[in-house]
Amino acid sequence: MTTTMMNSNDPQLSSSEQMLIANINYAFDTFSPIDEIQQLIEQLNPSSANFQYDLSQTLGIITKFYYSLEFFIRSIPDFKILTPSEQKSLFERNMLGIFSLGTLFFLHQSAFFQTTANECLLLPLYGPDRLQQAKHICRQFHSDTIIFKLLLVALAFSSNCYTLDRQCTISKDSLLLGTFRLLGSQNVYVELIWKYLIRQSNHFSAVQRFSCLTKQILDILQFSMDLYDTNSVYRTFIDDLIASNEEIFVPLWGKL
Fold first, then answer.
1. What tens digit of pLDDT does each residue of 40-67 get?
2. Per the structure, how many domains does the chain have?
3. End-to-end CA distance of the chain
4. Do the domain assignments include residue 32?
5. Among 9, 30, 45, 76, whose CB has the most other CB atoms within 10 angstroms?
Protein backbone atom coordinates (compact mmCIF):
# COMPACT_ATOMS: atom_id res chain seq x y z
CA MET A 1 0.00 0.00 0.00
CA THR A 2 1.42 3.40 -0.93
CA THR A 3 1.71 6.34 1.42
CA THR A 4 -0.86 8.23 -0.63
CA MET A 5 -3.37 5.41 -0.25
CA MET A 6 -2.80 5.26 3.52
CA ASN A 7 -3.14 9.01 3.88
CA SER A 8 -6.42 8.99 2.00
CA ASN A 9 -7.97 6.95 4.82
CA ASP A 10 -6.24 8.70 7.70
CA PRO A 11 -8.36 10.63 10.21
CA GLN A 12 -8.16 14.38 9.86
CA LEU A 13 -8.04 16.92 12.64
CA SER A 14 -11.34 18.75 12.82
CA SER A 15 -11.49 22.48 13.50
CA SER A 16 -12.58 21.77 17.10
CA GLU A 17 -9.62 19.42 17.59
CA GLN A 18 -7.24 22.00 16.19
CA MET A 19 -8.70 24.51 18.63
CA LEU A 20 -8.23 22.00 21.46
CA ILE A 21 -4.56 21.61 20.57
CA ALA A 22 -4.17 25.38 20.42
CA ASN A 23 -5.76 25.73 23.88
CA ILE A 24 -3.49 23.06 25.37
CA ASN A 25 -0.45 24.73 23.86
CA TYR A 26 -1.54 28.14 25.14
CA ALA A 27 -2.28 26.89 28.66
CA PHE A 28 1.02 25.06 28.96
CA ASP A 29 3.02 28.05 27.75
CA THR A 30 1.05 30.36 30.06
CA PHE A 31 2.17 28.44 33.14
CA SER A 32 5.61 27.45 31.86
CA PRO A 33 8.35 28.42 34.35
CA ILE A 34 11.19 28.32 31.81
CA ASP A 35 11.87 32.07 31.64
CA GLU A 36 11.61 32.45 35.42
CA ILE A 37 13.87 29.45 36.03
CA GLN A 38 16.54 30.72 33.66
CA GLN A 39 16.57 34.08 35.46
CA LEU A 40 16.72 32.36 38.84
CA ILE A 41 19.63 30.15 37.81
CA GLU A 42 21.62 33.21 36.77
CA GLN A 43 21.13 34.66 40.26
CA LEU A 44 22.19 31.52 42.15
CA ASN A 45 25.70 31.39 43.50
CA PRO A 46 27.27 27.96 44.04
CA SER A 47 29.11 27.53 47.35
CA SER A 48 32.41 26.88 45.58
CA ALA A 49 34.12 26.87 42.23
CA ASN A 50 33.11 23.21 41.93
CA PHE A 51 29.46 24.18 41.42
CA GLN A 52 28.23 22.70 44.70
CA TYR A 53 24.65 23.82 45.30
CA ASP A 54 22.51 23.47 48.41
CA LEU A 55 19.55 21.08 48.33
CA SER A 56 17.25 24.02 49.09
CA GLN A 57 18.31 25.70 45.84
CA THR A 58 17.57 22.53 43.89
CA LEU A 59 14.18 22.08 45.55
CA GLY A 60 13.33 25.71 44.79
CA ILE A 61 13.76 25.07 41.08
CA ILE A 62 11.91 21.75 41.09
CA THR A 63 9.02 23.16 43.13
CA LYS A 64 8.38 25.73 40.42
CA PHE A 65 8.16 22.89 37.90
CA TYR A 66 5.59 21.15 40.09
CA TYR A 67 3.26 24.12 40.53
CA SER A 68 3.46 25.04 36.85
CA LEU A 69 2.24 21.54 35.99
CA GLU A 70 -0.46 21.64 38.65
CA PHE A 71 -1.85 24.94 37.35
CA PHE A 72 -1.71 23.61 33.80
CA ILE A 73 -3.75 20.51 34.69
CA ARG A 74 -6.21 22.57 36.75
CA SER A 75 -6.92 24.78 33.73
CA ILE A 76 -8.19 21.86 31.63
CA PRO A 77 -12.01 21.67 31.27
CA ASP A 78 -12.04 17.88 31.83
CA PHE A 79 -10.38 18.41 35.20
CA LYS A 80 -12.81 21.13 36.23
CA ILE A 81 -15.87 18.88 35.84
CA LEU A 82 -14.53 16.46 38.47
CA THR A 83 -15.62 16.93 42.07
CA PRO A 84 -13.03 18.40 44.49
CA SER A 85 -12.50 14.97 46.07
CA GLU A 86 -12.03 13.38 42.62
CA GLN A 87 -9.55 16.08 41.69
CA LYS A 88 -7.59 15.35 44.86
CA SER A 89 -7.62 11.62 44.13
CA LEU A 90 -6.44 12.25 40.57
CA PHE A 91 -3.45 14.24 41.78
CA GLU A 92 -2.58 11.57 44.34
CA ARG A 93 -2.77 8.87 41.67
CA ASN A 94 -0.99 10.59 38.79
CA MET A 95 1.04 13.58 39.92
CA LEU A 96 4.24 11.56 40.34
CA GLY A 97 4.07 10.49 36.68
CA ILE A 98 2.98 13.91 35.42
CA PHE A 99 5.69 15.60 37.46
CA SER A 100 8.42 13.30 36.15
CA LEU A 101 7.44 13.74 32.50
CA GLY A 102 6.87 17.47 32.94
CA THR A 103 10.15 18.07 34.77
CA LEU A 104 12.18 16.20 32.16
CA PHE A 105 10.35 18.11 29.44
CA PHE A 106 11.14 21.44 31.15
CA LEU A 107 14.79 20.42 31.49
CA HIS A 108 14.87 19.53 27.79
CA GLN A 109 13.11 22.75 26.76
CA SER A 110 15.50 24.92 28.73
CA ALA A 111 18.62 23.10 27.42
CA PHE A 112 19.44 22.42 31.06
CA PHE A 113 22.05 19.78 30.39
CA GLN A 114 24.20 21.97 28.19
CA THR A 115 26.26 23.32 31.09
CA THR A 116 28.05 21.62 33.97
CA ALA A 117 26.75 24.21 36.41
CA ASN A 118 23.14 23.41 35.54
CA GLU A 119 23.74 19.69 35.92
CA CYS A 120 25.33 20.22 39.31
CA LEU A 121 22.24 22.11 40.39
CA LEU A 122 20.27 18.86 40.13
CA LEU A 123 22.86 16.65 41.85
CA PRO A 124 21.74 17.26 45.47
CA LEU A 125 18.30 15.83 44.66
CA TYR A 126 18.92 13.28 41.92
CA GLY A 127 22.38 11.96 42.64
CA PRO A 128 24.92 11.19 39.88
CA ASP A 129 23.35 7.97 38.55
CA ARG A 130 19.76 9.25 38.31
CA LEU A 131 21.06 12.49 36.83
CA GLN A 132 22.68 10.57 33.99
CA GLN A 133 19.43 8.65 33.47
CA ALA A 134 17.47 11.89 33.26
CA LYS A 135 20.01 13.29 30.83
CA HIS A 136 19.71 10.20 28.63
CA ILE A 137 15.89 10.40 28.59
CA CYS A 138 15.96 14.08 27.66
CA ARG A 139 18.23 13.36 24.69
CA GLN A 140 15.50 11.15 23.24
CA PHE A 141 12.77 13.80 23.34
CA HIS A 142 11.26 14.75 20.00
CA SER A 143 11.66 18.32 18.84
CA ASP A 144 7.88 18.72 18.41
CA THR A 145 6.80 20.14 21.78
CA ILE A 146 3.07 19.83 21.00
CA ILE A 147 3.28 16.05 21.33
CA PHE A 148 4.60 16.18 24.88
CA LYS A 149 2.04 18.74 25.93
CA LEU A 150 -0.70 16.42 24.68
CA LEU A 151 0.98 13.47 26.43
CA LEU A 152 0.93 15.32 29.74
CA VAL A 153 -2.83 15.80 29.48
CA ALA A 154 -3.43 12.18 28.47
CA LEU A 155 -1.27 11.02 31.37
CA ALA A 156 -3.15 13.28 33.76
CA PHE A 157 -6.36 11.33 33.13
CA SER A 158 -4.86 7.87 33.54
CA SER A 159 -6.60 5.65 36.05
CA ASN A 160 -3.35 5.19 37.96
CA CYS A 161 0.27 6.10 37.26
CA TYR A 162 1.69 4.95 40.58
CA THR A 163 -0.16 4.54 43.87
CA LEU A 164 1.10 2.90 47.04
CA ASP A 165 -1.30 2.65 49.95
CA ARG A 166 1.34 3.25 52.61
CA GLN A 167 -1.10 4.97 54.96
CA CYS A 168 -4.01 2.58 54.32
CA THR A 169 -6.21 5.37 52.97
CA ILE A 170 -7.04 3.89 49.56
CA SER A 171 -10.61 3.21 50.69
CA LYS A 172 -11.13 6.99 50.79
CA ASP A 173 -10.06 7.40 47.16
CA SER A 174 -12.98 9.06 45.34
CA LEU A 175 -12.05 7.34 42.08
CA LEU A 176 -11.63 3.87 43.58
CA LEU A 177 -14.81 2.55 41.96
CA GLY A 178 -15.18 5.20 39.30
CA THR A 179 -12.06 5.33 37.16
CA PHE A 180 -14.34 4.86 34.15
CA ARG A 181 -15.08 8.58 34.54
CA LEU A 182 -11.56 9.23 33.31
CA LEU A 183 -11.67 7.05 30.19
CA GLY A 184 -13.69 9.47 28.08
CA SER A 185 -11.22 12.28 28.74
CA GLN A 186 -8.14 10.17 28.21
CA ASN A 187 -9.48 8.66 24.99
CA VAL A 188 -10.03 12.13 23.55
CA TYR A 189 -6.42 13.15 24.14
CA VAL A 190 -4.88 9.83 23.05
CA GLU A 191 -6.86 10.00 19.81
CA LEU A 192 -5.75 13.60 19.41
CA ILE A 193 -2.11 12.51 19.70
CA TRP A 194 -2.68 9.84 17.07
CA LYS A 195 -4.33 12.21 14.61
CA TYR A 196 -1.64 14.82 15.20
CA LEU A 197 1.11 12.27 14.49
CA ILE A 198 -0.56 11.23 11.23
CA ARG A 199 -0.94 14.84 10.21
CA GLN A 200 2.79 15.38 10.70
CA SER A 201 3.84 12.48 8.47
CA ASN A 202 1.99 9.33 7.36
CA HIS A 203 0.35 6.26 8.83
CA PHE A 204 3.50 4.12 8.95
CA SER A 205 5.62 6.84 10.56
CA ALA A 206 2.82 7.62 13.01
CA VAL A 207 2.75 3.98 14.17
CA GLN A 208 6.49 4.03 14.72
CA ARG A 209 6.41 7.34 16.55
CA PHE A 210 3.45 6.31 18.72
CA SER A 211 5.30 3.12 19.70
CA CYS A 212 8.40 5.13 20.60
CA LEU A 213 6.32 7.54 22.67
CA THR A 214 4.72 4.66 24.55
CA LYS A 215 8.14 3.26 25.43
CA GLN A 216 9.36 6.69 26.47
CA ILE A 217 6.43 7.13 28.83
CA LEU A 218 7.01 3.69 30.35
CA ASP A 219 10.72 4.46 30.77
CA ILE A 220 9.93 7.78 32.44
CA LEU A 221 7.38 6.18 34.78
CA GLN A 222 9.93 3.51 35.69
CA PHE A 223 12.53 6.21 36.29
CA SER A 224 10.14 8.16 38.52
CA MET A 225 9.11 5.05 40.51
CA ASP A 226 12.73 3.99 41.06
CA LEU A 227 13.69 7.50 42.13
CA TYR A 228 10.69 7.70 44.47
CA ASP A 229 11.39 4.29 46.02
CA THR A 230 15.16 4.68 46.50
CA ASN A 231 15.54 8.39 47.27
CA SER A 232 14.02 9.35 50.63
CA VAL A 233 14.59 13.08 50.06
CA TYR A 234 12.76 12.98 46.74
CA ARG A 235 9.97 10.82 48.21
CA THR A 236 9.40 13.22 51.12
CA PHE A 237 9.47 16.17 48.75
CA ILE A 238 6.82 14.64 46.47
CA ASP A 239 4.64 13.42 49.34
CA ASP A 240 4.64 16.84 50.98
CA LEU A 241 3.73 18.62 47.74
CA ILE A 242 0.86 16.25 46.97
CA ALA A 243 -0.37 16.32 50.59
CA SER A 244 -0.46 20.12 50.53
CA ASN A 245 -2.62 20.08 47.40
CA GLU A 246 -5.61 22.35 47.86
CA GLU A 247 -8.46 23.42 45.64
CA ILE A 248 -7.21 26.45 43.70
CA PHE A 249 -9.13 28.47 41.16
CA VAL A 250 -7.27 28.49 37.86
CA PRO A 251 -8.89 30.17 34.82
CA LEU A 252 -10.01 27.88 32.01
CA TRP A 253 -7.00 27.15 29.77
CA GLY A 254 -5.06 29.71 31.79
CA LYS A 255 -7.01 32.60 30.28
CA LEU A 256 -7.86 35.65 32.34
1. 887 775 655 556 678 888 999 999 999 9
2. 1
3. 49
4. yes
5. 76
